[in-house]
Amino acid sequence: MNPGGKKGAKGGGKDLHEPVQACPPLKACIIVQVDAVNEEDGTREGVVGVSTQLLSGPSRAPVKKTTGAGLAIYTELTPGSYEVGIKVEGGMTKFYDLVPPPAAQTKSAGGGATQIYEFELRSNWIGARVWLGAGKPGKGTPFRLRVKAMKPSGELSAAWAVQHEGKSEEKAYIEKYVPKGRYELSVVGVSEAKWGAARIVVGEAVELSAKVSGVDAGTAGTLTVYDVRDLTKAIDTVNATVAAGDGGKELKGSWTPAKGKLGDLQGSEVVFEAKAGAAKGISGPVPVVVKEKFEVVDPAAKKLDGHLSLYYSGGAKVEADAAGGEVEVFAPWGQKLARIEYGVKPCAVTFEEEGAAARGFLLSA
Amino acid sequence: MLYIRQSQMDAFAKAFVADFERAAVAGMQDQYPERCEALGDEGCQKLVRYGVEKARGFGITKEYDVQAFVDLMFAYSADFELSPELGWTKAVLDEAELDGTTKMAVIRRRVGGR
After folding, report:
1. Residues A137 and A172 sit within 8 Å (Cβ to Cβ)
2. Is A3 within 8 Å of B104 when comparing Cβ atoms?
């Protein structure tokens, strides 16, 4: 395949239709063609805004910048030999390097023909590919590419700028004509989403935290608590902000489970989803317990000591020690006390739940 | 003295274009057999004819340049200058200060790298 014809070949043959002459006879026309060559795939594109100049020759003309076609056109020139030069300057140095040599070329132009002066600029490209390990491409993995672009002075800018945000494909992500600078690729995600305690006690604050990557510090996020058996209904949401720390960026918040919010909890365990920008991840489950006080007395109302085993409707078993007729246990949320084992019999165990009538167990000998 | 009337000139021009189109169709069938098979003989001829007229609209009239223009239509798409890949060619084709040969020289050089 040779689309467009042979590289560098000039047009030839007869005219199929009446030709359109752009350069008047007895005059010279010069086209300065400035192409950016992409080294990744060899493609070329015209570069807009490059300063071109007729450095010497029979006619003079003001400096012209290349147009959207990557061309600067000089017409109505006196025929002769012209030296043409280009300058890559200012903001353009951020993107391109002039391919040496030369920065100037000399050719003869005239006779109503158009002379083309070709210049090449080297452009930068960057590629990214996400692998899940063992040669498996990480398709659909969110990632972010940031850059500290190089200033014309050669210094890197102080702040990061987002160059691209997207999801990985099986093939590599390639971006052409990117600015020179230092690049950082990060997978956007949440890891180590964890609770600050092994169990959550109703009415007591607990810390929720997660490591975040690919998201800027200061980004607003949420920590949403769900019933482990139903991840469609949020129990509660804590607003948080991504903060930078010694161990990386973190999303952290504090949650105090209130009885009113836990009413619909089907199981006795909750998880939370940490979310900031496109990053999200879910924690492991933790049990929710409620502090309950029991009174342990014999039939004569004498306060007893000793070890109790409490069995709940959901299958949970809680061990506790009574002292001075009192025992405090952490009962699994939403489960009913079904059975008690206690070494001293007969006795009675009564306990109160907030907003409910006192309940008691009479343990006969 | 030999006189050639305008009507005769027009007939010669038409015949010349028709010859070019026949040769171009044969060339495209040889170079892009799958595309031409999908288009069929008539479709292939129509696309070449469309290419010749379209090239003319951009001031591209020389045989070699028109051939290259039509080649791009078969290699990429009938309206390649509007495609994401070759969209940059539109600015070159629309450049009023360039003649057809120069336009195609610029395009050829850039496409040649692909």
Report:
1. no
2. no
Residues A251-288: tens digit of each pLDDT: 999 999 988 888 777 778 999 999 998 888 999 999 99
Give CA–CA dist B39/B87, Å, rounded: 24
B59: nearest CA in chain A?
A20
Distance CA A226, CA A269 (A): 9
Q: How many helices (H) and strands (E) does chain B have?
A: 5, 0
Q: Which amino acid is at A273?
A: E
pLDDT single digits (tens) A70-100: 999 998 899 999 999 998 877 777 777 766 5
Residues of B in contact with A23 (CB under 8 A): 99
Nearest chain A residue to B21 by CA distance is A16
Write down the ipTM of this complex. Answer: 0.76
The per-residue pLDDT for range A137-158, each reduced to its tens digit, is 778 888 899 999 888 778 899 9
Among residues A328, A1, A74, A249, which one has the least CA distance to residue B74? A1
By the CB < 8 Å criterion, does B78 face chain A?
no
pTM of the model as a whole: 0.60
Does residue B17 contact residue B52 with C-beta atoms inside 8 Å? yes
Q: Which of A124, A231, A134 is nearest to A182 (CA)?
A: A124
